[in-house]
Hints:
The chain is of the alpha+beta class. Among the domains are: about 50-260, no CATH class; about 280-445, no CATH class; about 445-540 and about 580-595, Sandwich (Immunoglobulin-like). The protein has 23 helices and 53 strands. The strands form 17 sheets. Strands 28, 29, 30, 32, 36, 37 and 38 form a seven-stranded mixed sheet that branches. A six-stranded mixed sheet has the order 43-42-39-40-41-44, with helices on both faces. A hairpin with a 2-residue loop joins strand 15 and strand 16. Helix 12 crosses helix 13 and helix 15 runs parallel beside helix 23 (about 1060-1080). The longest helix is centred in the last third of the chain and has 30 residues, at about 840-870. It is elongated and about 170 Å long. It starts with about 30 loop residues before the first helix and ends with a helix. The model has no long low-confidence stretch (mean pLDDT about 90).
Amino acid sequence: MFLLLPKLKSDSDVRPSDQAGKWDAQDFKTFGDVASSLDYKSPGQVKSVSSVPTIWARPLSMQMALHNKAYPIHRQMLDQWQGMLAALALAEMRRFPLSAQLLELGQLRHQDPFARALYELRPNPPSKALYLLEAKNPWEDVYVFLWDGKSVGMSSPSTIVVPSEAGKWENLPWWNRQTRCLEAPQGYLNASEKALLWRWLENLNNELNRYTGDAIAQNTMRGLLAEFQNSLGGQPEQRLSLSNNPQFFGVPLNRGLLNALNRPVKAEPKESCVRVVASENKRGLVPPLLIIDPEIARSWDRSPQDIWIYQDQTLASPSILKDLQTGKILWKDIRWIESKDLFTPEFHFIDMEDALPGGFLPDNTPSIVFKGQEITPLLPLNPILLDYFTPEELLRKLQFSTLNGSEGPVLRVSLDLPLSGMNNDERNPQNYRVFKDYPIKEDNALTQVPVLEIWPNFRAQGWKEYYAFYYDLEFLGSSNPLDRTFQVNLPGAKEPHIFQDGKGSYQLTRLEEYPSCIECRDRSKNFLGLILLKTPALIALEGSWKVGVDFGTSFTNIYVNRRGITEPLPLESLHLKVTEVLSDTRMPTLFEYFVPENFFPPEKPLPLSSVLTTRKANNVAKERPIYDGRIYFFGLFGRRANEPWIEIDLKWTNIIVNRLFLKHLALHVTALAAKNGIQQIQWSLSYPSAFSRADKTRYARNWQDLTEELQAKTGISQICPQQDNLTYFRTESVATAQYFADQEGHNLVNSTCIDIGGGTSDISIWTEAPDRFQLVHQCSVQLAGRHLFSQFIALNPRFLVDKFGVGEIGGQDRAFHLQIDLLLRSMGDDLLKKRDFLEEDPQFQGLLRLMAIGTAGLYYYVGILLQVLYEKDRYSRPEITPVYIGGNGSRLLNWLAIGGRFDRHSEVNELFSRMLSKASGFPDTNEITRLSTRPKDEVACGLVLDRTPLGGIISKKPEPVIAGEDCEVNGQKITWKDYLELEGNITGFDMPQLQEVPAFLNEFNTAVKEIDIQGLKPMPAFKNGELESSYKDRLWREVHKELRTNLVYIRGDSENIRVEPPFILGLKALLRVLGKEWAGK
Length: 1081
């Protein structure tokens, strides 16, 4: 038997038994004596064998090994002991998943048989104990240490800690997976960790002095701790820094010397090495982003513990990701991401070439071919990258390369990440390249693209009003598996408005910053990839525009004056067309649901139709431009004018849609100004004198409110006139006169200017004054294009179809008038070319006569004005005046001229001059009417001109209307020569007897007969110098009936009544009756 046992050393003090086979009682230290007396060296690997026959074998073996340097496995056990102490010391710093549980055997023995066995067999007396506990054996209270919830060691009164046999310290760098043993930690620590561990061991050694215990054991332990310290290097400059967590291990370690284990070291916070160095203009706008990837250490050829993640955490922390994912670690104002999550799981693409003209790809991107056809990639990147890089910078860090995979083509996407690095130098970041290989799969092909637009496509300081539009072309909900498209999400979008119209899906969103990317998603909202958008250069804003806005009944015109140069608003496309869609599809979609890219007609898009669309509006009451209402840009003839979402006649009706139109108009003008580098807009606004006091106040207030809101959203200074600003808040009549004086160079001395619009004609009469032209009188009458032409066609819609071959126009009232306005704008010149061929047609002659009666009646009223003003000493000369006519309705005079072109030689000039003379009583001096060379531009252009001084525009109170015809207001008679001023509550307005209107009609027929104008004849019933008696009686009876129908509406608060001259009221009633007669109604 002895031949099988190792021999004893020569100096062995082991006393053998006197008798073989007999149990011999020995002192406890005998086990240690035997171990240290064996003269044995293993030829192979040394392993720990716990052959001590006690339940406490492992801690007692560790005690014998540490306290006896001659112990055969002293070195191995010392390494394990040092490894466990290092793990405890660095537990917080490296985020080790260590926890502890306290076993109080004195209490547990009553509950558990195994605890009772431990208690009964505890080492006693406490030999080699480093500390004692009051009234109990220190072995009664021990801590079990757990790694990821599994036991890996325990505390010991004699060795402080004891690593368990084959404990599983998964991911601890100094745990050997093969031997399943801890190793000495020194080679796995960096200088900082060694310094901190040195101080922690020093603290542990110092704590040992505070406790009573086995003196020899304490001295031995001091030596072991000092030896451990020395192995870490000399005394460091690093000060001791301990955790602030009083229970880091889950329970307080507070039994004797174990108090020194309770607080692991806490590293001094260091700057992160893995922080993304953002683009310069992105820094400070979002929380720092940390890239967590163990491969960074390998890529940079550094130890993981040298790579600081955040504060006291490094890449050496095995549980850092788990703790972050489970919320165990919460970093305030810090973002983190694994590098693999910077890429999408799959690569999706559009199965067509150049499908994203507004998208942005890296330079030198190779052709990506799938099944013989070039494809357009969606960038397989996480949108979070755009929080830190501009699209341009991100693309410079991105690289595509194509590879041949075993199962087909592969796209490698590489990304260079600039990180703060080891030197934490933002000027010289340390690069970390990551990549992912994507097989190009047919299942990931998108066969269709939606309409996708951004407006406006620029950046300017302070501009915070951007819109994005999406339409799926009805593919998103298609049941055809070959119809695969995507829907979108724009990061930072405000108030997304998603809606259906028919089978189509639409989305309208607003953003406060120019979007850097568009997220593409499938119908289930799964992320597919990114479309990057190129960042437009920042426009330098300087200079100013003076903008004149002529908000008309049918059309709205805008002029600008910059540095003395006056021109129509330079309309241009402000769109970014992101996707390539056929124009036949894209353009109508933008017209109907968004902002059109081009305007009609392209050669002269201004003026714009005064039309608003609320199609699929989200909430009109919110009055948000584009969302709740948009300027509607009609194509040919405005065939959709009858749709319920089309709002017309905005100038005079619905207040909300009126404001919506103006809001979108002002936004569009401001966007064009910003695109042209304009920093300030001085608005110059016009209004008709026919506005009631309430109309005028409301109009001015609307502009002030919307420009104030617009300035806050766009950063463009908006100077909007107050209601009493006579320079920038002018009547349309004064603006027209300014145009004729400045732009066309006409002499305004003793002249009349008339702007004939769609709903009103604005009249101003002028004379001379020192150094200026002086306003004598101005007014606005609701007699214009719709009364002089459109209303007759509305009574006989077949006329244009039968005589001019125009497609039939439908609709009622206002919608019909709108379509006529658009028809005349788009085809007016072509229609006029047919005029001479129809000159002898009785029905056509009847229409020309109606137009002539209406226009001549307007001149007759001007003659009345001249007479009354002369009698009131406001007009100094008993002379009729030349007339300058502009406005959209001025084109109608061409219909009254031979050849379809009105000029100073047209015969109808004589008729108009005669009407001025007959109404005023002044001699007929054959004054000429001159048409503007820019019909409908006069008011808008005049608003931004000021070269010619105009005087007399000083009254802030509306000028009273001259009646022109007898009437009664609240029972009080007003003669045709009186001013008509309505005050207070109007309970009755009547015109019991017409005198001036019949007199005018007689003068008209007489003049037409005498002048013998080609193509224009008197009324058929006009014979022997007057209308036939029976016809005349019937005619005026019908006129009075028509007139009474309209007079009933002149009731209520005078502030809200749009005052019309009684003469004009009578004239309009006459035209209505004659029009019905002409139409056979």
